[in-house]
Amino acid sequence: MFEFKKTVLLATGLSLLTSCALLPEDRTRAELLEMPSLSLTLSGDAQAEKIVREWPRAQWWHDFHNAELNRLIEIALEDSPSLHAAAARLTQAEAAADYQAAEMLPSISASIDVHQRRFSATDFYGPNGGKTFTGAYLDPAVFRYHLDLWGKDKAALDAALGKERAQASELAMARLILSTAIARNYIRLCAAEEDIGLAHALSETAEEKAQLAQLRWQNGLTGKDQVYASVQQLEATRQRETGVRSQTQLLRNRLATLVGQGPDWGKTIHTAANEAAGHLPQPEAVSLGLLAHRPDVAAALWRVEAAAQLTQVAKTNFYPDVNLVGFAGLRSLNLKDLFLSHGASVAYGMGPTVTLPIFEGGRLEAELKGQQAAYDSAAESYNDTLLSAVQQVADSLAEWRKTLAHDAAQERALEASEAESALAGNRYRAGLSNRDGPIEAEAALLQQRLTASELRSAHLLAAVGLIEALGGGYENTALPTSNKVDRHD
């Protein structure tokens, strides 16, 4: 045992003396950007921290108080092929991490080798030369343990865990993209279904106006130009109605595909008015801290961490590698003597094996250079993702505020149009005007209602865009810090 310890110490000392001899000098690595300031854009208030903790929540679509929207998204999260594919990629990453964790543990296996072997008569085999033997090696215990002197196995495990967490974040991003796509298309479908009724009513008013123009021309009260103008207006309204009906079918087909169903299934989708405007928080109360909940930003940062760890693995390849190996079993040239030799066939061994990288023809340098470039690429991808995320938040806030202003202005315009339509009806009933007045006022009112429907839809779409920009309730409490990542440069 004393001799064995001396051998281990000698091998370890040799490894330490020869380590790092050929390791190239580090060059400047890419740096991660700090979080850009948005203080002027966000206009935080005293409730910001509460909003950060409570909104958006994981099932943010419930804030729209629409049972059909809830149903569509929940079916999609269960049945979508794209999510199934993303989940399978996550399972692959988890398996890779489990395998790398197992690599850090000792391995014990068994080996059986039964062979027939002839020894050369002209070699140094002595009395066995020129003879043929049927022998066996029976090793019920073969031991191997890699001495992780330089942290190679630990870095490889951390890299695998980083890739696993990046894949989990990408799965969350896929869920967010799918759910927001369903919400957007459902909002558009509800608006289109509402527009069908308004467009049909507009066609009826245009048809009545065309009939009046035809009657007046027949009675010689107006010229034919009024008939032509009214027919053109009628056909334009009919085209609009046809276009809206076609749009609803396209939206149903798209929603069915997003949910993971066929086109016929889309015909069963029910539409109902959304009520999100009164339930979502004002954007002025949203803090930039929610950017930490962006799954794409989290995934990019985890990939930086994994690349940093793989760079560390590439560095350790320049150092000596030490494995502790051993075996215990029975070995005999003659198979019949394997169990009948009264212990003479017993064999065992234990000791370190050291591999020294002396000349690799530039392979190790090329591998390290490639991993360093992969780190730089991952870091710059993170920077790009971060900047895009900040822009999306700023753009979504601007769009939200615009739709709020437009909604308020349209409500006032709609109230004025309703009052004008009522006044025109009263004048006609009192005999103070002809039928054209109420028809034109009704057409103007329908146009205002179509505009209001479009703006309400835009406001809800802006709400979905803001939720998506803020991560949709995604939470990752184990994000690596910049210092942790930079440590492995």
How would you sum up this structure, described in words?
The chain is α+β, with helices and mostly antiparallel strands and 489 residues long. It has a domain at 22-104 and 163-185 and 262-319 and 360-486: Outer membrane efflux proteins (OEP). Helices cover 61% and strands 10% of the residues. It has 12 helices and 4 strands, in the order αααααββααααββααα. It has helices at 2-18, 39-42, 48-54, 67-79, 81-103, 152-218, 224-259, 263-266, 295-316, 363-429, 436-469, 482-486; strands at residues 107-118, 132-147, 321-332, 346-355. The chain has a 4-stranded antiparallel sheet. α5 (81-103) runs antiparallel to α6 (152-218) and α6 runs antiparallel to α9 (295-316).
Topology at a glance:
Elements: H1 2-18, H2 39-42, H3 48-54, H4 67-79, H5 81-103, E1 107-118, E2 132-147, H6 152-218, H7 224-259, H8 263-266, H9 295-316, E3 321-332, E4 346-355, H10 363-429, H11 436-469, H12 482-486
Antiparallel strand pairs: 1-2, 2-3, 3-4
Query: What is the fold named in CATH at topology level of one domain?
Result: Outer membrane efflux proteins (OEP)
Q: What is the percent of helical residues?
A: 55-70%
**Shape label:** elongated
Count helical runs. Answer: 12
CATH class of one domain, named: Mainly Alpha
Mean pLDDT: 81
CATH superfamily of one domain: Outer membrane efflux proteins (OEP)
Strand content: 5-15%
Can you name the CATH architecture of one domain?
Up-down Bundle
Which spans of ≥5 residues are poorly predicted at pLDDT below 50? Answer: 15-21, 43-55
Biggest beta sheet summary: 4 strands, antiparallel
Numbering strands along the chain, what is their spatial order in the largest sheet?
1-2-3-4
How many strands in all? 4
> What class would the helix/strand composition place it in?
alpha+beta
Cα radius of gyration in angstroms:
38 Å
